[in-house]
Design goal:
The chain has 12 helices and 8 strands. By secondary structure, the protein is of the alpha/beta class. The protein has a single domain, classed as Rossmann fold. Strands 1-2-4-3-5-6-7-8 form an 8-stranded mixed sheet, with helices on both faces. Helix 10 links the parallel strand 7 and strand 8. The radius of gyration is 18 Å and the shape is globular.
Length: about 300
């Protein structure tokens, strides 16, 4: 498959690029943009994002890596069939494996935010040889909240205030209400993502949010022993201003992965790559440089 990049994808920034369509052998289509030079790196967005979510990272990473940013199965502008009743990060990880195959990439660095981080960890557990290094920002592995009293309390509050009313709104067809509830709960009540152009973009990705929100297995279990067995370079990031449920999940996931480097980024909420883009870019590039990923080739 041709992986050359239109000049606009790097020289004029990600916003100037036209996403390409990738047809996978499982019948799923994905859209994404490839740019840069160096070893392969894949950006994986969160629940209501898409291939555009990593625009603040594009210019910083493409001089060092051949970067792919893509839209997960039910995100804009993909046109896939209705989700199964148990759609989850396990399905998204299989899509990512097939996408790597289509590109001829035997392995790649994975940089995932929120549900994208969950997807990255799911692929690493299933196919560790495919992952050269992994950076995960607050993977929302809700079952890990149950591993501590503080986590259980935060999760119960989150379910009552956010998940249950948002899911009720989605089931009743009140999609914008559900999106606003979920956005506020995930990113904080005062999130600027709930207004203007940011909200309009999130509404383009309602299908992705609903596929997870209405799934019977939105947060599949990745066992602590599976996470502890991962041997590739691992960086876990959280925002100092993130809602309590994310902070508690992050603490428990870090405890399950003592081999990982874990950092809490100041002046950031759940979306660290967006909220503190410059610090995120420097931190992640320094981490990858320290682990010599730049020396490998696609």
């Amino acid at each position: 498959m041709d992986v050359t990049t239109p000049p606009a994808a790097v020289g004029e920034g990600l916003a100037a690029a036209e996403p390409r369509r990738f047809a996978l052998p499982n019948g799923v289509e994905l859209h994404g943009v490839i740019g840069g030079e160096g070893p392969p790196l894949v950006f994986i967005h969160g629940a209501m994002g898409d291939w555009r979510s990593f625009e603040p990272q594009w210019a910083a990473f493409t001089p060092h890596f051949t970067c792919l940013t893509y839209s997960r199965r039910y995100s804009f502008p993909n046109r896939n069939g209705p989700p199964g009743p148990d759609h989850s990060a396990l399905h998204e990880a299989e899509d990512l494996r097939l996408l790597l195959d289509a590109l001829g990439w035997s392995s790649a660095v994975l940089v995932g935010s929120s549900y994208g981080g969950f997807t990255a960890l799911a692929l690493a557990v299933a196919e560790p040889a495919r992952v050269r290094a992994l950076v995960a920002v607050e993977p929302p592995m809700m079952k890990y909240a149950a591993l501590s009293a503080a986590g259980r309390a935060a999760a119960a509050d989150f379910c009552t205030r956010v998940i249950e009313p948002a899911n009720a709104a989605f089931r009743a067809g009140r999609d914008e209400e559900g999106a606003r509830l979920m956005t506020g709960g995930i990113n904080g009540a005062a999130s600027p993502l709930n207004d203007g152009e940011a909200l309009a973009r999130r509404l383009q990705n309602l299908g992705a949010m609903k596929a997870l929100a209405l799934s019977s297995d939105e947060f599949p279990w990745l066992a602590p022993e599976q996470l502890a067995a991962l041997s590739m370079p691992l960086l876990l990031l959280s925002g100092a201003r993130t809602p309590a449920v994310h902070a508690e999940i992050f603490r428990n996931v870090c405890a399950a992965m003592p081999q990982a480097k874990a950092l809490v980024m100041p002046d950031a909420g759940h979306g660290v790559a967006r909220d503190a883009a410059a610090a995120f870019n420097t931190t992640v590039l320094d981490f990858l440089r320290a682990h010599s990923t730049r020396e490998e080739t696609p």
